[in-house]
Amino acid sequence: QVQLVESGGGSVQPGGSLRLSCAASGRPFSMLAMGWFRQATGKQREFVASISRSSPTYYVDSIKGRFTISRDNDKKTLSLQMNRLMPEDTAVYYCAARNSAIPYKVYTQSDEYEYWGQGTQVTVSS
């Protein structure tokens, strides 16, 4: 089992920045592929960004150039740096993890992930 705990959400004005973190425990972090998803009120959960066990990353088009996903295997932490936030980024953001036998593979579908955090709210509003 893997436990995931997100932090760093909050309220920010348009154009502002937030950094989300996800602390993982329960299994060797280096063996996990990780991802961020978000769900706005009344909408389906959507993919945001993912990172393989090694360096490859993948982003949804709407956040490319504004968000950066990263991982620190020593600290067992996943991060999402969010810059130039827009009102449409408002959502609950979820950290997700899965065991991955392939070091460079990224996963973008929610049903590919085995473990989920409880979510953290991000609100972008003036």
How would you describe the overall organization of this protein?
0% of the residues lie in helices and 48% in strands. It has 126 residues and is mainly β. Strand 4 (32-39) and strand 5 form a beta hairpin. The N and C termini lie far apart (40 Å). The mean pLDDT is 96.
**Gap between N and C termini:** 40 Å
Shape: globular
**Total of helices:** 0
Strand segment tally: 11
User: Helical residue percent?
Assistant: under 10%
- What value does the average pLDDT take? 96
Lay out the secondary structure.
Layout: E1 3-7, E2 10-12, E3 18-25, E4 32-39, E5 46-51, E6 57-59, E7 67-72, E8 77-82, E9 91-99, E10 115-116, E11 120-124
Parallel strand pairs: 2-11
Antiparallel strand pairs: 1-3, 3-8, 4-5, 4-9, 5-6, 7-8, 9-10, 9-11
Q: How is this structure best summarized?
A:
0% of the residues lie in helices and 48% in strands.
